Structure formats: C-alpha cells, structure tokens
Amino acid sequence: MIAEAGHYALVLALALALIQSTVPIAGARWGDAALMNVARSTALAQLLFVAVSFTALVMLHVSSDFSVVNVFENSHSTKPLIYKVTGVWGNHEGSMLLWVAILALFGGLVAAFGNNLPLSLRAHVLAVQAWIAAAFYLFILVTSNPFLRIGSPPIEGRDLNPVLQDIGLAVHPPMLYLGYVGFSISFSFAVAALLEGRIDAAWARWVRPWTLVAWIFLTLGIAMGSYWAYYELGWGGWWFWDPVENASLMPWLAGTALLHSAVVMEKRNALKVWTILLSILTFSLSLLGTFLVRSGVLTSVHAFATDPTRGVFILLILCLFIGGSLSLYAWRASALKQGGLFAPISREGALVLNNLFLTTACATVFIGTLYPLALEVLTSDKISVGAPFFNLTFGPLFVPLMMAMSFGPLLAWKRGDLLGAAQRLTAAGIAALITIAVVYAWTYGGSTFAPLAIGLAIFVIAGAVTDLAERTALFRVPFATAMQRARGLPRATWGTAFAHAGVGVALIGIICETTWNSEYIGTLKPSDVAKVAGYELKLDGVTQRQGPNFREMIAQFTVSLDGEQLSVMTPSKRNFTTRGSSTTEAALLTRGASQLYISLGETTNEGAVAVRIYHKPLVLLIWWGPILMAFGGMLSLSDRRLRVGAPKPAKASRALQAAE
Amino acid sequence: MTRKQRRLTMIGGSLAVLAVAAALVLNAMRDSIVFFSTPTMAAEKQIPTGKRFRLGGLVQPGSLVRGDNLAVNFSVADGAATLPVSYKGILPDLFREGQGVVAEGALDASGVFRADTVLAKHDETYMPKDVADALKKQGHWKDDYGAKPSASAAPAPAQGASK
C-alpha cells in the first residue's frame, strides 16, 4: 500500500510538473498574472508530492518490506536503522528519487521565497525548473521505478553493498546532490533571462545567493566524498582522478567561475552574456555528471546498475537540455546588450582571468574524462587516462590562478593599480619566500617542487590576510579602530578572505601528504613492531567479533612515540555474510593535522597479518581547506546585501528588449 | 585604450591561455595515456619492455603463489593466452582465483608483467567491464558470468591496491 501510494504521488508530481512547465509561460506571454501565479502553487504542491513519495520509500526500507524489489535488493532485516535509511539512496532508483526530491525542494524554495522577483521572471524560472523535473520524473517512472513489487516476496533481503554501510552515505550523496541540483536554479534563471530577453544587475543579485548555496554544498560534498574514500577504501588515497570524481569536479570549477563572474555582473553590469553561458554550462556539467554516473558507461563505485535503456534515456535528457539551452543562447544572447567597460588591469580584469583559468582547467578535466570514452566509441581502443595526465595539465593551470588570487581583491574596480597591489602584497611575498627557504632547508635534498608549492600556498593565505588588514587599516590606525572597522566590513569581504585562504590551506595539505607520506607495508605477527615516521606500532593481537550483519576481525595496535605510549588503534576487516564480501575498516589516529593510518590485508596461515601503515603529515588540511571555503561561502551568503534582497530591476525604458 | 583595443587584449590573453592549455593537454596525452590489453592482445602487439599498460583477464586458477614479504605471483589468462604477473603489496579484498582482474604496470625483460597496481572490481558474478568486453570479443564469454544480473545491482566497488 505504501509503495503504491509513493508511486502514485510521483505520478501526480509529474502531472503537476507538466502543468508548471506550460501554464506560467502562457501566462507570461498573455500578461495574465493568475496564470503566472500557477507556477508558485504547483511548485509547492510538487514538493509536497515528491516528499510523500520519498518518505514512502524511506518507510519501506525502514520496515524492511522485501516485497518491493528495491528494498529486497538493497536491504537486510539485521541492518542497523541508520543504514536502512541511508540505503534508500545507496542504489540507482533511490538516488534518482533523492535527486528529484532535491530538485523539487529548490523549486519550492524559489516559489516560497521568490516574492520579490518580478512576476514574469519567477514564472519563467519555475517553468524551466519544471521542464527539468518532468524529464527526470519520466526517467524514474519509465526506467527506474523504485516502487516495483515482487510477485512472491522473499523472506530476507540481499543487503546493502558493505562499502556503503557507513556514515559517509548519510552525508556525501545528499550534500553532493544539493550542489549538483542547486545549480539548476542558476540554469533556470539563465534560460528565463534568455526567454524574456532581458537581464540586468538585479538578475545577478538574485542568482548569486542560489549559486552560492549550491557551491557551498558541492564543496562540502566533494570534500566529504574524498574523506570517505580515504578512510573506507583502505589504501589511503583521497583523490583518484576517477571519472566519477571528475564529474563532480567539473561543475565545481565552472560553478566557482560562475560565482566570480556573477560578482562582476552584479557590481559592474558587465560580462552578462558570459555569466549566462556559465550558468548554462555549470548545470550542463552537473547533468553530464549524472549521465556519467547513472548510465553505466563507467564502471565505478558509484555505478550501481547498468541498464542500457537508462543510459539512452539520460543521454536524451542531456542532449535535450544542453542542446536546447545552448541553441537558445546562440539565438538570443545577441539581444542582451554589453555592459560596462573596464581596463584589463582592474578587479573585473582579475575576475576575467580567474574565469579564464577555471574554465580552461575545467576543459582539461573534461577532455581527460571523456577522451577515453570517445576513443572507445570511435576506434574501440581502450585507454585509461590517469593521475599523471591531470597532474600535468590541471596543476600548471592552477599555479597562475593562485598567484593572481591574492592580487584580485586588492585591485580597484574599473581601473586598478597593479604596482600598488604588489606593494601591499610585499609582506605576503616575504612570508612566502621565508617559508620556501625554511621548508627547503628543513627538507634539504628532498623535493624542490614542494617548498615552492608551499610558498605559493602561504602567499595565498597571507594575501587573504593582507586584504583584510588593508581594509581595516590594521597597524596604521589604533587597534581598537581597526577592530571597529573589521566589524563594519561587509561579510562578503570576510567570506572572500576565508574562501581564498581555504584554497591555500588545502594546497599545503595536498603537497605535504603527497611529498612526505611515509608508509610501511608488510606482514606482522602478534607482538611484532612496525616503525613509521618515528612512531612505533606494536601488534598486540587479533580478535574476532560478531557485528549485526557481519563478522569482524580486529587487530589491536599499541602506538608509542619515543617510548611513550600514545594510544591504541584497532583496524579491522569485516566479512558480510549475505553478499559474501568483505570491507577494510582503517584505523586513524589524529595528531594535530597529521594522521596515522592502518589498514589490514589478508591473514597468512602462520597467523601473521598483512598491514599497511601510513603516516600522512598534515593530511587533514586537505579537508579543512574546503571547510574554510564553505565557511567563507556561508559568511558571504549572510551578507546584508543578499539578505535585504535585490533592488528593483532597471526601469523598463532602460531594459534590454528581446530581438523578436 | 579604446574599446576595441581592450577587447583585443582580452581575446589575445584568452587565446594565449587556451594555447598553453592545449599544449599541456597534448603533451600529457603523449606521455600518460595507458592502453588496455588482454594477454592475447599483449602477445600479438609485442608490447615493448617497460611500456606501461593495463592488463585485464581472469586470474588463472592454481597460479597464485605468495612469496615472502607480500610478494605475489599469479597468471592472468583470457582463454587463449596467459601472462605471468608479479606484484608486491596487499591484494584487494575481492581478488580471487578464477575471477576478473585488471593490473597496471609494464613487462620486464623476462616477459613477466610487473604490476604496481592491481584492481579487482566485481562481486561473485560481476566482471570488470574492460575484461568482460574483451572476453566477449574473443568469444570466451560464458553466459554464467552474467547469469544473475540482478545480483549485481549494486556491484562491489572498485577496490584497488597500489604500492
């Protein structure tokens, strides 16, 4: 009964989406306010019905109703409750349902909080949202119905993939989807602007907070996924340049560029056409990510099931939306007039540079990810493009970007003073040089690249601090006055500083982890001692334990440094009986920002255990960086300017008319 | 500067960055692309010693020999040819004899494939996609490999081991 209700609610949501995708546009054409307002009520009702549908699936999973195929294939009655809930999106059908639920949530938010939007803009935005929603409801109902029943219900389910039975599944997919799908809002705004043929600075002011929300979630989602892979897969890697990871990185890069170009548009009314294009591209890359992950063209952790019809269906959606929006762009973009002028050396110029490097970096990731697929289709040669490719292309493009990052905020709008900015960055430059010298001397004979990269990171962080110090006139006025000024600074300025510093922090972590990672791989018998980076790890013994739906072999290590006992670490290996597969649960010991990492391999006949022990210096900075970035984003989001809302759009006389 | 000059500066700058990026991509493509081969293809193509590639196939039953200090030797077969592989390190949880495997590395002078990465990615019925495609193409595909597609609705994830 619950399954049928959930299915029915989804069908109703499709019907509502179809109404929402047509009626408001007709209303906007005829200037009928009542018809345009239909968008608002249908968006809210759609959210309600999708929520009902999603709740139904959660209830089926929680109550272990194995008469439903989806529950049977991905659940087990002894599975802990939290994994029964998170298992809802630990499979293809459920995760697509989560996708549309989040899409409906964003649509509902625009409907609920878009009161200050011009009526016709809101009608258009919600209609475009409904096109996307309708396509994905159809996809779910036709190819991936999560509510299918089994004729003769089995007694026990097949259990969830053990690797997914982790708290990471509760956080990573919802965060990532909030990011992916959040960009649908800027996409809808862009398409709405093209349909209406008018766009102004107020438009950018509405789009920016939505983009920022999506960007914050995507940043956290990617970081969370990376940390999850790091501790769960058992070999200490945190980024593999796997196509699925790239699929999430591409919208992030484009979204970051969009955030910056939207600033130019909001402040200076320039780069309009480019901002529209970026909005379209960012969501297109999100859709591409969905296609890559969900269609089964890739084999990866994330590809749950491979069913050709699904692939073809998503490919159709992809072509329709990307092709459609880009054609519309080609047709209508010329109708949008160019905005303000600026010199190449200016804040705008710096932001253009930022966009240039981010989109180029995004393009190299795109090529590296799709080239193997294209080659296989065209020549049936199978190749793999791995980390070396991305390190050689992505890395060199990020170096100038990070160098320019400190200069950007110090340049004035319209016409900047590069020399002045350089003078103000002297302190940051000196800090960077000292860091390079110290790190080089300390690690003498080691890598020469690492000290330089760390110097660059310090330059970025010091540059962010310099920006704040300059704005508060720290050291030039009495301290109390500076503090007062600091309080008076717009939160967006603080946000910029935190986000930029976050990039530097993450870079330090990345460089330290990859350069000075030390490891021990070998077999240990009880009371054997392994030495890694000055730490002594003694294997005390191996015990067995029965978990709720697995058997577990736990090894206990005593960790000591310079003869002083620090802690006990217990890595384990879990064997899941239902699926007959096992997972490695690594043990982590955090020391400051560094970590010791132990994961177990197979046991030999003589009772020795194969172990992998890593010491990863400053590894946690890799994830603290993105957290800082997201925190900066949140500060920026809480800026008064965005809370108060956008000003009235430009007067109709100045408005840009569509070329009909 | 006039509007035109400004625009030219911007376009020139963009083209310069794009040219650099294109050069980087082409350079990286030349050096860091890894091809996929089965043992038969490796024998036919006469892959030179030291050239990195990905070797895919089934782990020959009975070929797994564990040496000292985590050294492992096994053979990868695709029905027509076999190739000995040596690896040092911890094998992924899902590594089993008779099952699909993908190893990355290069041939040494004695014709042994020295792997530095071993990936096993399947549950009891699922094959790595590259391996399955290659076996199908050579006609060594047995239907029972894919007999229970629904059982692999959520195939075990990529598991890897690398030195």
Question: What does this entry show, briefly?
Answer:
The complex is a heterodimer of chains A (660) and B (163). Chain A is α+β, with helices and mostly antiparallel strands and 660 residues long.
Keyword list:
heterodimer; A: 660 residues; alpha+beta; Four Helix Bundle (Hemerythrin (Met), subunit A); 4 domains; four-stranded antiparallel sheet; 20 helices; 63% helix; globular; B: 163 residues; OB fold (Dihydrolipoamide Acetyltransferase, E2P); five-stranded mixed barrel; 28% helix; elongated; disordered C terminus
Name given to the CATH homologous superfamily of the largest domain in chain B = Nucleic acid-binding proteins
Compute the number of structural domains of chain B: 2
- What is the CATH fold-level name of the largest domain in chain B? OB fold (Dihydrolipoamide Acetyltransferase, E2P)
Q: Averaging pLDDT over every residue of chain A, what do you get?
A: 89
The major β-sheet of chain A equals:
6 strands, antiparallel
Can you characterise this structure?
The complex is a heterodimer of chains A (660) and B (163). Chain A has 660 residues and is α+β, with helices and mostly antiparallel strands. Chain A folds into four domains: 1-165, Four Helix Bundle (Hemerythrin (Met), subunit A) (Up-down Bundle); 169-406, no CATH class; 425-516, no CATH class; 518-616. Chain A is 63% helix and 12% strand. In chain A, strand 4 and strand 5 (551-561) form a beta hairpin. The model of chain A is unreliable at 651-660 (pLDDT under 50). A five-stranded mixed beta barrel of chain B has the order 2-4-5-7-6. The model of chain B is unreliable at 122-126 and 143-163 (pLDDT under 50). With 163 residues, chain B is an alpha+beta fold. Chain B has helices spanning 3-32, 39-45, 129-137, and strands spanning 33-37, 52-59, 65-66, 71-77, 82-88, 100-107, 113-120, 159-162.
